[in-house]
C-alpha cells in the first residue's frame, strides 16, 4: 500500500499530466524502443505512427494518478488492457523496462519540475500499478492455457478457407495445425495474429475479432483491407493477409481474449449496432443468440458506405428470415444506383437518434456497438440523449482505447 504522502504527491501531478501526458508518453515510447528495439516485435507500429497508442497510455497514466488512492476504480481498465497484454505476450519482465523509461520520460519532459520527491513517489506508485497488472494478467495466462483446448502464447493454425465477404472484407477460417481441440470463447472476443512478413525487420501482431459463434471446430476472423488514405499508411498486416495468405498457409494465433462480450445472462432485448468492419464482433453475438435458442428480441443495425462494402448482409438477412425475433436494418452513407434500384437500405446518410427510435422497439435493452471512432461517438451520444443508462451501453475500440465523450 502507498502511504498518504506518496498519494498526495501523485495527486498533485494530475494537472501536469493533463497538460503534458501525451508529450511524456511520446517520449517514453521513443526511449523504450531505442533502448529495447526487441519490443518493436510486440507493439503495433501503425498505432504508434498515428499517435493512438501514446494517447491511450497518457489517458491510462492520468487515470492511475487520479485514482491512486482507489485503484479498484480503474480495475475494469486494468482488465481490458490485461486482455490485450495477454494476447500480445506481455510478461512480468517487461514491466521494469516500462517503469524505467516512463520515469525517464517524465523527468525529461518536466525538467526541474520533476523533483526527486515526485520521481520517487511515481516509482513507488508505478510498482503498485505494475503489480496490479501482473497479478491480473497471471490469472489470464493461467486461464488461457488451462481451459479445455487452451494454450500458452501462440499456436499454429491452418487457413482452411478464405472467403471474400465484400469489396473490403475477407474471412479466414482457421483450424489448429495439431488437429487438437480449440478453446471456446465469449461472443465479442478477439485473437491476436502474429505475422512474419518477408522484408520486414519486425514481427507484427494484430487483434481480429472472432466473427462466428463459438462451438465450431474453427475460428473465423474477417479482415478489412486497410489501404493508404491521405497520410494514413496502408495496413501492413491486413494487406498481406489479403494478398499473400492463402488456403493451406499457417498463422500463429493467441488464445481468445477480450472483455467486450455479450452478457448471456441478461434476458432483455439486445441491440447490436455496427459501422464498417465493426460488424465482426456483432456477427459473433448475433449468431450466438440464435444458435443458443435465445428468444431475446434482437435489433441488428449496420452502417456501411454502400452495398459493395457491406459484408455478411445475406447471412444476417437469412438469420432474420428464420428467426422472427431478429430484425435487421441497414444505413448507407452513399448508396450506389444498384442499392437505390433494389431499395437495399433503410436509411441514407448517417445513423441518428430519431431513426434509432423509429427502428428500436424498446430502449430498455442492452446496447452493443463497434466501428470507427467518429461513428461510435455518434451512437454513444444518441443513446445518452435518449436516456439509456450507462450500464446498458457497451462498446469496443479496435486498437488502443480512446474516449467517446
UniProtKB/TrEMBL annotation:
Domain FAD-binding FR-type: 152-263
UniProt enzyme class: oxidoreductase
InterPro entries membership: Cbr1-like_FAD-bd_dom, FAD-bd_FR_type, Flavoprot_Pyr_Nucl_cyt_Rdtase, FNR_nucleotide-bd, Globin, Globin-like_sf, Globin/Proto, Hmp
Residue ranges occupied by any Globin domain in the UniProt entry: 1-138
Active site, per annotation: 95, 137
Cofactors: heme b; FAD
Top-level taxonomic group: Bacteria
Residues annotated as site: Influences the redox potential of the prosthetic heme and FAD groups: 84, 396
CDD domains referenced in this protein's UniProt entry, alphabetically: flavohem_like_fad_nad_binding (cd06184), Yhb1-globin-like (cd14777)
Residues noted as binding heme b in the record, renumbered to the chain: 85
Listed GO MF terms: FAD binding; heme binding; metal ion binding; nitric oxide dioxygenase NAD(P)H activity; oxygen binding; oxygen carrier activity
Residues the record lists as binding FAD: 190, 206-209, 397-400
Protein name in the entry: Flavohemoprotein
Organism listed in the record: Brevibacillus agri
Amino acid at each position: 500500500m502507498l502511504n498518504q504522502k506518496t498519494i498526495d504527491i501523485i495527486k498533485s501531478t494530475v494537472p501536469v499530466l493533463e497538460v503534458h501526458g501525451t508529450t511524456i508518453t511520446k517520449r517514453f515510447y521513443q526511449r523504450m524502443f531505442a533502448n529495447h528495439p526487441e519490443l518493436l516485435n510486440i507493439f503495433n507500429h501503425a498505432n504508434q505512427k498515428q499517435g493512438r497508442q501514446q494517447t491511450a497510455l497518457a489517458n491510462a497514466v492520468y487515470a492511475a494518478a487520479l485514482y491512486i488512492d482507489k485503484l479498484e476504480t480503474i480495475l475494469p481498465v486494468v482488465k481490458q488492457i490485461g486482455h490485450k497484454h495477454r494476447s500480445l505476450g506481455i510478461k512480468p519482465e517487461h514491466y521494469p523496462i516500462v517503469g524505467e523509461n516512463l520515469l525517464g520520460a517524465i523527468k525529461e519532459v518536466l525538467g526541474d519540475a520533476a523533483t526527486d520527491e515526485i520521481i520517487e513517489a511515481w516509482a513507488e506508485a508505478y510498482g503498485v500499478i505494475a503489480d496490479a497488472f501482473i497479478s491480473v494478467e497471471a490469472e489470464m495466462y493461467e486461464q488461457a492455457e488451462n481451459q479445455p483446448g487452451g494454450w500458452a502464447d501462440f499456436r499454429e493454425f491452418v487457413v482452411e478457407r478464405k472467403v471474400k465477404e465484400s469489396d473490403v472484407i475477407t474471412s479466414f477460417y482457421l483450424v489448429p495445425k495439431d488437429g487438437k481441440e480449440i478453446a471456446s470463447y465469449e461472443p465479442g472476443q478477439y485473437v491476436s495474429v502474429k505475422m512474419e512478413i518477408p522484408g520486414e525487420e519486425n514481427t507484427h501482431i494484430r487483434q481480429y475479432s472472432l466473427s462466428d459463434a463459438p462451438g465450431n471446430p474453427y475460428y473465423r476472423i474477417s479482415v478489412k483491407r486497410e489501404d493508404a488514405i491521405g497520410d494514413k499508411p496502408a495496413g501492413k498486416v491486413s494487406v498481406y493477409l489479403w494478398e499473400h495468405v492463402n488456403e493451406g498457409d499457417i498463422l500463429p494465433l493467441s488464445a481468445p481474449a477480450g472483455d467486450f462480450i455479450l452478457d448471456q445472462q441478461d434476458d432483455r432485448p439486445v441491440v447490436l449496432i455496427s459501422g464498417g468492419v465493426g460488424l465482426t464482433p456483432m456477427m459473433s453475438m448475433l449468431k450466438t443468440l440464435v444458435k443458443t435458442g435465445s428468444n431475446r428480441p434482437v435489433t441488428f443495425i449496420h452502417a456501411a458506405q454502400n452495398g459493395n462494402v457491406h459484408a455478411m448482409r445475406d447471412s444476417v438477412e437469412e438469420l432474420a428470415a428464420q428467426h422472427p425475433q431478429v430484425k435487421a436494418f441497414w444505413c448507407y452513407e452513399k448508396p450506389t444506383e444498384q442499392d437505390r434500384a433494389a431499395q437495399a437500405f433503410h436509411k441514407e446518410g448517417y445513423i441518428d437518434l430519431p431513426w434509432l427510435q423509429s427502428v428500436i422497439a424498446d430502449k430498455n435493452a442492452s446496447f452493443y456497438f463497434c466501428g470507427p471512432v467518429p461513428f461510435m461517438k455518434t451512437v454513444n451520444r444518441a443513446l445518452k440523449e435518449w436516456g439509456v443508462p450507462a450500464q446498458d451501453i457497451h462498446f469496443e475500440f479496435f486498437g488502443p482505447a480512446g474516449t467517446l465523450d
